[in-house]
Amino acid sequence: MPRVIPPENLGCPPIRALTFDSLGLIKVTEARGKERGTPTVVNTWGEMNASRTVLAASIDDRLRNPLLAVARKDGNVEILNPCNGDLHFTYSVYGDDGCSSEENEISALHLFRKKIDEQAERSCTLLTCTKKGDVSLRSVKFPDAHSDSTDDASIKTWKACGSGEILVGKVDGSENFSLFGGRRVEATIWDLEQCTKIWSAKSPPKDNLGIFTPTWFTSATFLSNEDHRKFVTGTKSHQVRLYDISTQRRPVLSFDFRETAITAIAEDPDGHTIYVGNASADLASFDIRTGKLLGSFLGKCSGSIRSVVRHPEHPVIASCGLDRYLRVYDVKTRQLVSAVFLKQHLTGLVFDSGFTGEETAVANTVVESETEEIMDQEEEEIEETPVKRKKSKKEKRGREIVLEDKADEENEDEAEKAPVKTKKSKKEKRSRENVPEGEEKDELRSKKSREHKKRTKKVKHNQED
Amino acid sequence: MGFKRKKGDGDGEEMESEGRGKPSFNGGEKRHVILPSMIKNKDKRSKVYAKQKHEKKLEKQKKIRERDAAEKRALELGEEPPQKMIPKTIENTREADETVCRPDDEELFADIDADEFNPVLRREVTPKILITTCRFNSTRGPAFISELLSVIPNSHYQKRGTYDLKKIVEYAKKKDFTSLIVVHTNRREPDALLIIGLPNGPTAHFKLSNLVLRKDIKNHGNPTSHEPELVLNNFTTRLGNRVGRFIQSLFPPDPNFHGRRVVTFHNQRDFIFFRHHRYIFETKEIKQSDKGKDGAAQERVKPRLQECGPRFTLKLVTLQHGTFDTKGGEFEWVHKPEMDTSRRRFFL
């Protein structure tokens, strides 16, 4: 039966998405208007050069002075202003000599949201990780003008893996811990303050045929912003795995999704829904508590999904990938809201959550109506000056409101968030208490492993059923 | 028969009876229009149908005659002839597609300049093709491959043996091949073509059908070893452009026009038709009696085509990013059932 789409679902809430592509361009797509906006490409930044392919991007969409960090294929990391695309600062990961850029590409980038020192307005902290496992944590200060600014006060570097390739790097919501994983690299959790490894995963046992699947993580995400102990990973052997640091080193839950590598995973703020995209263009949502498929997102998507992002406020997710389309889906109905053709292979996507479409839309309509009457010369002035003022004022207001909403939502989330299993929550508490002592930990672990066996048996039974 | 026909003339009477048969259908009001499908007697119904059809035919003929007459009159008077109607086909009522390449698109050209086929098409590298088969091939498979070898210049055949395809890809990379073609055979009939760009180009998987070998083509010619000219038709969308460039990168970029050999890839409704021809320009003297057109031209050059080489149809199944890797590879394009909601939607 063809599903009938109710007409009120069509139309996009006001969103602002920045997509990054294989030519190194950054495209800004905005949907304006209150309800029924259609996203259109508003701006394109950067010059077209294949060696400047964007590999990773991270945004800090705070109220004042938002920042966007972009890692390129030639090893440069750029810090931009996500509102107008102004370049603040650039540096190369490989240092001045700039060697070994072929094999050692950047695989992960994170822009820290919390401020290290409140006084320095124009500074930021960046975590970068290359494929060979060179992690560096550096804070960068940049002045207003384009003068020299390489005041790298603190660079912490360490090696996250001995061999293999790191393909995934994520930083949790509190920004104290990071997660790395990749090809022949097990998922590991690092403490960013001490730069020490605090936990590493164990590969799952051989299957019933005695076949061992090699480790190859392709995507990962932390399950919720507050909790760094639970995270979900996707592997090249089309498995989605849930890990819980506080219980065991092997995955708590794992299930298969279709037949190609999992390339993108995103979490929902409700704490138990995840969105999974794979290399043959399937996108689906799962309930991670049970591992059940909630439904798939059908949108005539034909190319491998590189990135899935959930909008922090509006109930939409966006996906982009090798089919050169940015697609926006409704979370509840799982219907395609809109698709925008962006011409290149897209490698990444971020939402600018500070964007509220209504005000700018109003401003724009005003401008348009005025420009019809007024001559061309005056047009520029009007477009430039009043719109900006309006935008800035109203956007700020909008953001404040939004923030309040956010706080409310978070409270609700906490209230709603029932623990996955009551047993587990108890264990978590215990383990939290026991983290410093090593001996008791071992005992616990043995218990856990026993329990894990039981659980796996249960799982098997379920599968047989 | 004659008797029946006579009876058929009185079908007005029969309609009345039909009307009488259903008085309650439209209240007391008498119906003037009675659909033939309401007639229950099959014999009579078919007669009514036949009559209707005949009338339609006559009408159509009349219309055509009028149109032709109008055209003729316009020609005689030296006026503009009325515009010819364009028939509706599936192609020209195709669904609007925003991915169709436009010649003024800078980003498109920048993207094209950065793609994997560019070194070959910019003549920095001469194409060198490795052709191999699936594990088991017989009868039509080898015959098809020998003809492919004659079509594609600088192509080499290697026995497949029992090697993994990934190993073969590695080998071909080491030997500086630019593409690898795998002819897949099922039930002794070639049914798929896998084209892998090397060293990091995409992998295209085509379904192959309607294969006609050279010896089965009537009046076929034998191709020469000149570099062929290449005709790529209708590769309009972004995906089509990419596939077209991929096919283009299999052939040397500068054809030898003395050879007068053409290889055609014609895309129609997502099916890619392959044809291989030789052509010749013949100068023919026109006989005096044949002066219907212009009359003055005594000699005219007339191109003639002769088909040679295999004839087959390709349909794209998947296009994969990177070289062959079914398990972990990323697909640039896969066909999904949800795309089949319209027969007027095409992807190439």
UniProtKB/TrEMBL annotation, chain A:
Residue ranges with Basic residues bias: 420-429, 447-465
Pfam families linked: WD40 (PF00400)
Superkingdom of the source species: Eukaryota
SUPFAM superfamilies: Quinoprotein alcohol dehydrogenase-like (SSF50998)
UniProt region (Disordered), positions on chain: 368-465
Record protein name field: Uncharacterized protein
InterPro entries tied to this protein: Quinoprotein_ADH-like_sf (IPR011047), WD40/YVTN_repeat-like_dom_sf (IPR015943), WD40_rpt (IPR001680), WDR74/Nsa1 (IPR037379)
Signal peptide (from-to): none
Biased composition range(s): Acidic residues: 369-384, 406-415
Organism: Capsella rubella
Any one Gene Ontology cellular component term annotated for this protein: nucleolus
UniProtKB/TrEMBL annotation, chain B:
GO cellular component, one term: nucleolus
InterPro entries in the record: Brix, IMP4/RPF1
GO molecular function: rRNA primary transcript binding
Source species, domain of life: Eukaryota
Region named Disordered: 1-80
GO biological process, one term: maturation of LSU-rRNA
Comp. bias regions, Basic residues: 42-64
Sequence ranges of Basic and acidic residues compositional bias: 65-76
Domain Brix as annotated: residue spans: 127-325
UniProt protein name: Brix domain-containing protein
Phylogenetic placement of the source organism: Eukaryota, Viridiplantae, Streptophyta, Embryophyta, Tracheophyta
